[in-house]
Design a protein that fits this description.
alpha/beta; Nucleotidyltransferase, domain 5; 5-stranded mixed sheet; 6 helices; 5 strands; about 50% helix
Length: about 160
């Protein structure tokens, strides 16, 4: 075997080892709504947020159970609606019950909250800036999954 070929094989093995070492478990983000639940997850490197979709409550728990079965989810973050002054409001009580339900259903996965103040409004602005037509932007659930992506992007930026 020539030296160049041996060196090339070493480089490939080193590159593969570097990729394996930098892969992380994913973080899941939830934008909870009373009608729909938007979900996003991080990429395997923990750099980007990817939309998973929007679900009703039953569909969400079924999807989450399937996702957790792959053992690549590190934690779940949930958008927590605080007021402009950082105080709790009527919706935070609903979210507290939802978080309790998540913790009981999936006790091995940590659940954290992140302030979601204006996340839906900011997601709407991003969707408008994307250049899609109003009809496309207003498809049910598009805003919810975009808001979940926005929450997760903020989380990933602050935890690098």
């Amino acid at each position: 075997m020539s030296f160049n070929l041996l060196l090339r094989e070493f480089d490939i093995l080193t590159w593969r080892a570097a990729i394996v070492l930098t892969l992380k478990q994913r973080v899941l983000a939830i934008d909870y709504g009373t009608k729909r639940i938007g979900v996003a997850r991080s990429d395997p490197f923990g750099l980007f947020a990817q939309p998973v979709g929007t679900f009703d409550r039953a569909g969400f728990f079924k999807t989450l159970e399937a996702m957790l079965g792959t053992n690549d989810i590190e934690k779940i973050i949930v958008g927590y609606p605080l007021s402009n002054t950082g105080e709790k409001n009527a919706m935070t009580g609903v979210l507290d019950r939802f978080i309790d339900e998540l913790s009981v259903a999936f006790p091995l996965i940590p659940v954290e909250t992140i302030n979601e103040h204006h996340s839906s409004r900011d997601a709407q602005r991003i969707l408008i800036a994307s250049g899609n037509s109003r009809k496309v932007r207003q498809k049910k659930g598009r805003l919810d999954s975009a808001a979940a992506c926005l929450l997760l992007s903020d989380y990933l930026e602050t935890h690098r």
